[in-house]
Amino acid sequence: MESTDRRNMRTQFQALFDTLRDPQSNSYLLELFASMIVSPELQEEWLNGGDSNKVKGCSQEFIDSLPRVPRSEIPLKESCPICYEKFGDDEYPLVAELPHCHHYFDVQCISLWLSKHATCPLCRDVVNQKTFDNIDLSKAELEEDWGMYS
Amino acid sequence: MNSRLLKEWTQLNKNGNKYYLCPIEENDMTHWQSEFEGPNNSPYRGHKFTLYLDIPSNYPMSPPKVRFKPYSMPHVNVDWKTGAVCLDILESMWSPIFNLQYVVESCLRLLTEPNGESPLNLELGILLRVSDHTGYNGLINYYLNHPHNSLSSK
Amino acid sequence: MVNNRRRKSNQLILGITLAIGIGTSCYYLWKSLQNGEDRKISDTPIKDATNDKRNKSRCVVVTSSVIDTMNVIPWSQLLEDEEDLVLIVIPSCKDRFHLKLDPRFAYKVIRCDTVLGVWSCIKSLKKQELYVNLEEFPDGERNMPDDIPRYVPHITYWKNEKDILTTFPI
């Protein structure tokens, strides 16, 4: 079989496989048939590739809004834990600080990681969780009187 | 991220590369191998093992693909035929701060701390689960000592 | 013309194949009739060790009757000579089965703490032949798991020491 034919067949199989994976589809027999024809390794590859649509990463908006460490506060002798390069080796270092755990990374490195993940590479803290730092405590006193002591 | 690999390679050479981690071919940084001895407090002591590491193009954003030499590692979390390793840090628990040395060390740790919950070798998994230590060690010892040709056809 | 010739040669091939098949069946039938009286009722005829030891792939489960043969059958020698022979010792015999064995071959004796462990080893090793006396297993554990035949094609059920000696004649 020519390689182009084989490639076309593979693409079609992959498309079929993707449709059958959809939990809405109820063609169990076809799914069984496809899983018998397609090798387990290839199935795994397609499964992993297919999941890139359902990325568990952070939104671009969140990534762009990561606080930047001011130039003067960047620990130039320390290295980015992802690329192992010293922050100071860059002429114009761009360093981001994760809002919850406060770990530092190169902006470029952490952006790439967070596009597909939502945890800190160092401590696995969930980066886009809401924190309690921003609660306005001044309003709390006003609401204390719930009429329970009347 | 090739510069990361180069940095690792430099560090390994500087710090005494105790797991003999190196690219298999000089100019190809995508295929590495490592050689180490089984830990003393394990049924693997006295035997040498080879680990192959295939580095993806977006490393360290993705983990390397790791496998032992086929038909050489009888272990609960290793596929005997392909050498594939089932290890959490190589999948969901991967972090880009990990490096190849850490990967090798984690595989080494597996030899003393097999994970009974995700067995790739079902029979060894059962022996572990029912705490049949004599059988577990005995079966591993058999595979480690028996000539490979007769076992590779299974 | 060509079709006729092709059909004739197909028929010839078919004829030869049938003849061979019938001939082979007749031979085996005759052979089995010859050995009929000596055969035990088992899945496979108990083979003796005069066959070429090199090609054998055997797994023997060591139970008490095997231990009784220790002074008679040279197990250590067998383990050295037969490349693909493995002995799996059931828990109750673990401390009773001690051979003076060349350390190079010691790995061929696998002891187990559990009966489940014994079956797991058998499944893992996938030898061609299995020899086992189920009646000497502990009470309540005398049934062979249903899937063992999927891992070992030829299973021989020993009943006593005599059966062992038939398989491993001295």
From TrEMBL, chain A:
Major location category of this protein: membrane
Domain RING-type as annotated: residue spans: 80-124
One Pfam family matching this protein: zf-RING_2
Keyword Metal-binding: yes
Record InterPro entries: Znf_RING (IPR001841), Znf_RING/FYVE/PHD (IPR013083)
GO molecular function annotation: transferase activity; zinc ion binding
Bilayer topology annotation: Single-pass membrane protein
Keywords: Membrane, Metal-binding, Transferase, Transmembrane, Transmembrane helix, Ubl conjugation pathway, Zinc, Zinc-finger
Protein name: RING-type domain-containing protein
Automatic annotation (TrEMBL), chain B:
Pathway per the UniProt entry: Protein modification
Keyword presence, Membrane: no
Keyword Ribonucleoprotein recorded: no
Pfam families per record: UQ_con (PF00179)
Residue ranges of domain UBC core in the record: 1-149
InterPro entries xref list: Ub_conjugating_enzyme (IPR050113), UBC (IPR000608), UBQ-conjugating_enzyme/RWD (IPR016135)
One term of GO molecular function: ATP binding
Keywords annotated in UniProt: ATP-binding, Nucleotide-binding, Ubl conjugation pathway
Listed Gene3D superfamilies: Ubiquitin Conjugating Enzyme (3.10.110.10)
Name of protein: UBC core domain-containing protein
Organism: Arxiozyma heterogenica
From TrEMBL, chain C:
Main location group: membrane
InterPro entries membership: Peroxin-22 (IPR024359), Peroxin-22_C_sf (IPR038613)
Cited Pfam families: Peroxin-22
Entry GO terms, CC: peroxisomal membrane
Keyword vocabulary terms for this entry: Membrane, Peroxisome, Peroxisome biogenesis, Transmembrane, Transmembrane helix
Lipid bilayer topology: Single-pass membrane protein
Stated role: Involved in peroxisome biogenesis.
Family to which this protein belongs: Belongs to the peroxin-22 family.
Protein name: Peroxisome assembly protein 22
